[in-house]
Specification:
By secondary structure, the protein is of the alpha/beta class. The chain has two domains: about 1-115 and about 235-255, 3-Layer(aba) Sandwich (Rossmann fold); about 120-230, Dihydrodipicolinate Reductase, domain 2 (2-Layer Sandwich). Helix content is about 30%, strand content about 30%. The chain contains eight helices and 13 strands. The chain has helices at about 10-20, 55, 70-80, 95-110, 120-125, 165-170, 175-185, 235-245; strands at about 1-5, 25-30, 45-50, 60-65, 85, 110-115, 130-140, 155-165, 190-195, 205-210, 215-225, 230, 250-255. The strands form two sheets. Strands 3-2-1-4-5-6-13 form a seven-stranded parallel β-sheet, with helices on both faces. Helix 1 packs across helix 8 (about 235-245) and helix 3 runs parallel beside helix 4 (about 95-110). It is globular and about 50 Å long. The protein starts with a strand and ends with a strand. InterPro entries: Asp/hSer_DH_NAD-bd (IPR005106), Asp_DH (IPR002811), NAD(P)-bd_dom_sf (IPR036291). Belongs to the L-aspartate dehydrogenase family. Pfam families: Asp_DH_C, NAD_binding_3. One of its GO terms (molecular function) is NADP binding.
C-alpha cells in the first residue's frame, strides 16, 4: 500500500484525493492545507495544518500542488522521510535550493519527481538532456490566467522575453512548464522564455523548440482551456505522473 500526502486543496489537490480514494494500492496519508476542508469524504484527521516528522515517516510520497514557497519551507524536511513530487516547478529555480534538495534526496535515498504537467514532449527532451544546443518556449494566455495580472489586461502584449529564470521569478505560479522545459534542456539562464498576455484568447497556447547539437529539432505546439492559472489538463496529468511514479532511482527524475 502506497501512502500519499497531498499539499494543496485546489483543483489538482482535490482531483488527486479523489483518485487516491478509488485506486487500489493507494491510501491517503494526509492533506496539508491552509484552507478549511469542508464536506470531504475522508476522516477529519486526514486534513492537517502541520506536517510532523511522525506523519511524514508513515508517508511514501508527498505531492506538492500548492505554491513554490512550499518547496522552500518544507522540501528538505519532507525528503528526510518521503519522496517528493513537485508540481510547482518554480520551487526549483533557485540553484542553491535545488542543489540542497537533490543532495537531501540522495542522502536519504529519496526521489524528487518533476511531473510533465502542461509540458507535452518531456520524455523526448529528457531522453537526450545533454545534447541540446538551444531551447525556447512561448506561452500565450488570456489575462485572467495570470497571477499577478498583467499591466494592461485589455491589450495583447509580450510581458516577458528573456531567460526562463527571470520569468519564473516574476510569475512563479504561471510558468511551471517553462521551468521544467529549461531544466530538461539547456538550463534556466540559456533557455529563452516568451510570455504573452492576449485578451482575444480563450485558451492557453504553448509552443517550444529545442535544437540539438546534431541539428535535430523538436517542436511542440498545443492549446488548452484554462482552469484558474493552469491548463485544464493539469489534474489528469498529475494523476498520470502518480501512476508512473514507481521504478525510478533516488535523486531528481521527471515523471
Amino acid at each position: 500500500m502506497l501512502r500519499i500526502g497531498v499539499i494543496g486543496w485546489g483543483a489538482i489537490g482535490k482531483h488527486l484525493v479523489e483518485h487516491i480514494s478509488v485506486t487500489d494500492g493507494l491510501e491517503l496519508s494526509f492533506v496539508f492545507t491552509r484552507t478549511p476542508v469542508v464536506g470531504a469524504a475522508w476522516p477529519d484527521h486526514t486534513a492537517v495544518s502541520e506536517m510532523t516528522a511522525a506523519l511524514l515517516r508513515t508517508t511514501d510520497l508527498v505531492i506538492e500542488a500548492a505554491h513554490p514557497d512550499i518547496i522552500a519551507s518544507h522540501g528538505e524536511r519532507i525528503l528526510e522521510h518521503a519522496d517528493l513530487m513537485i508540481v510547482s516547478a518554480g520551487g526549483l529555480v533557485d540553484d542553491v535550493r535545488r542543489d540542497r534538495l537533490i543532495a537531501a534526496a540522495l542522502r536519504h535515498g529519496r526521489r524528487i519527481v518533476v511531473p510533465y504537467g502542461a509540458l507535452a514532449g518531456l520524455d523526448a527532451l529528457t531522453g537526450r538532456v545533454s545534447a541540446w544546443r538551444s531551447a525556447s518556449i512561448t506561452f500565450v494566455k488570456p489575462p485572467h490566467a495570470f497571477e499577478p495580472p498583467p499591466p494592461d489586461a485589455g491589450t495583447a502584449a509580450v510581458i516577458y522575453d528573456g531567460p526562463v529564470r527571470g520569468v519564473a521569478e516574476r510569475y512563479p505560479r504561471n510558468v511551471n512548464a517553462m521551468v521544467t522545459f529549461a531544466l530538461a534542456t539547456v538550463g534556466l539562464d540559456a533557455s529563452r522564455a516568451v510570455l504573452i498576455s492576449d485578451p482575444s484568447q480563450t485558451v492557453a497556447r504553448l509552443e517550444f523548440e529545442a535544437v540539438g547539437d546534431d541539428g535535430g529539432t523538436l517542436r511542440v505546439s498545443k492549446t488548452q482551456p484554462m482552469l484558474g492559472v493552469s491548463g485544464s489538463e493539469m489534474p489528469d496529468a498529475i494523476v498520470h505522473s502518480l501512476t508512473r511514479y514507481a521504478g525510478h532511482s533516488p535523486g531528481l527524475c521527471f515523471g
